[in-house]
Amino acid sequence: MYSAVQALPGSTNVPSPGPTLRVMHHLGWWPFFLGMVLAAPVLQLRGEVEGPLVLATPGLLVEGRGAVLRGDKGHTLSLLAPGIRVRGLTVVGAGPGDDFFEPDAAIYLRGCRGCLLEGIRVEGAPTAVRMEDSPRAVVRGLRAKGLGESPGVLVYGSPGVRVEGSHLLGYMDAVYVEYSPDMVIRDNLLEGNGRYGFHVMFSWGVRVEGNQSLRNGIGNAVMHGAENRVVGNLLAGQGSPVGYGLLVQDERGTRVEANRFQENTLGLVLMDAQGVEVKGNRFQENGTALRITRERGGNSAWVEGNAFQGNLYDLLVDDPEAEAKVVGNRYDRASGLPVPHLPTGSFALLLARQPELSLFALSPGVLLWEAAEAQVPGLRLVALADPKAEPLARETRPHGGWLFLGLLGGVLWWRWRA
Question: Ranges for the Periplasmic copper-binding protein NosD beta helix domain (predicted)?
């Protein structure tokens, strides 16, 4: 009899296998011989399997084929060796621990370099996948619904990890990352999470590409890192009073390119971000499309080739020392004349400093004021003017009323906080 499962009953960080573990497949001598020949031991799971289950055989292939692994203590499945692959498994439940940084997980990876999770489904666990010190691990095709308090996929100290083609909803953050350079978050659907779709911290060289992050409680964030890339994503429906499509905070040399920001209270927020490139994005029907603000540091940005359409405000700046180069963008408010276009007005600049004035954002007086500024170039402010602005056709549908409600909610929140 050959077993590809190595249990670690004395482990202090990972729960020991439960007494009712059942693997519904007898391997026998022929699979042992075949595994020796192919150097790829195989564990076949069938039917209902009781966890927790701990695997520590390098290169092990676990075939779920519709099997269900259940657990209610600690991590339900722990992978503790390089090169383990798990496919087609459904994991139901885990321990009750929902601490954001150290939650109980359906699947826990530690020291699992190059491991693969593919076609996994997770139900009823605080966190779907938690990994530490597992470089180049891959999570592909994960389907998971959370319990609201913990991340869906939690990645810590694991360079080169990939999270691809997955659907995560109902978590605090769908994907939360710390100290994991060169990570790839690609082609995922992240929706209906309590705080963020993707949340990248203290990392560099991360690529966030082709995701749909929709209707999350706050939005998405890339923070305290450098040279990260956010490219080709749909960031939409973050309509809470403090919601934004993307926050780029305390970043250096990060690029935000070819994304679509739609129907967010704030589209893109740059805070204390240096050398950020904002190029080829589409800002559509947001409350404020692009906001540049400062908490402790300064801002410098290159804003080029973007399209601004149907936003209540295209640009707000409340950092008087911001070094923002705005050039060659398209605006539905641009006149089409060969004159510089300022994608903000004096009221918008005032609003950035006094948020309570958003109560008057759609009042007849302010609309008349802004219309006058748009028609008389002499009344326009010259700071942040786009010297190569191009006109963009206006959308026929009106601004959504929820944008104003979002601004009003933001004022109430701001007043309550103060």
Answer: 150-315
